[in-house]
Amino acid sequence: MNIEYIKYSDTGLVRQVNQDRIFAVSGKDCGLYVVADGIGGHFCGEIASSKLINAFDCWWKEFSEEKSEFHRCADELKEIILRINSEIYNEFSAKGKLCGTTVALLFICGGKYVIINIGDSRIYTLRGGKLNKETVDHTILAEAKIRGKQPSKDAKDRLTSAVGCQKELKMSIKTASVRASPFFICSDGVYKYVSGRDIVKFMQKRNLDGAERLCNRIIGNGAGDNYSFILVYAHNNAEEGGCNQRKDIINQPNEKKFLRGSTTMKKSTKIIIPIAVAVIII
After folding, report:
1. Minimal CA–CA distance to 210: which of 6, 11, 2, 33?
2. Cβ neighbours for 17, distance < 8 A, ≥ 6 positions apart
């Protein structure tokens, strides 16, 4: 299986601190991809998002593809979220403070995937040119819509679940078989500042030019929040083409160029984006 990804995170134009954290790693036949959006306005949301991402990093370092069993791994990832939720909640509630983060997680292994989400970070798929939201928004307005209730015009949308903010979590979980279609994982700082069509275009292009255009759209629309995304493409045939890359790519911050291996350079015309792309081919 070929697993490729493009990832990016940015503070945006308004916020002073980036409370988003992202994690993306691929093995031969497995991969873990996470966006965690620390809750702005709460006490150091970046503490919660960093703590969660660090826990996933530790789990992956002990992970063995040869000994992996999909459902056991999915349960372990769920337990990590529950454990970190308890740790953060117990620590900060004792201080009379809130510290929390959303999470949108994609784990691929053995031709299957699991999606876990809490809060309003999202995961999309693209099939037949149609954008599909695979996650459930845990917000007041979204849940009112599900119940068939019409909120008042003055109603403010708030999260109804976030890691670290309550003892009991609302957690949405979905499992299925992997198809040759991309996944797009993002914080709300992405989808609130671009259209679904903008996201579709990037998922269709699956390259650095598309990532730059998406970032430019977010910035052009104000970039009022931190914004982070990971594009993941898993497929079985190298001929299908993935993120249109065949080497590790790291765009160095503070440089007006993209680096592809040591051979190809492409100038950035509008913004400098330190995007990382990784490709695993077996």
Report:
1. 6
2. 11, 46
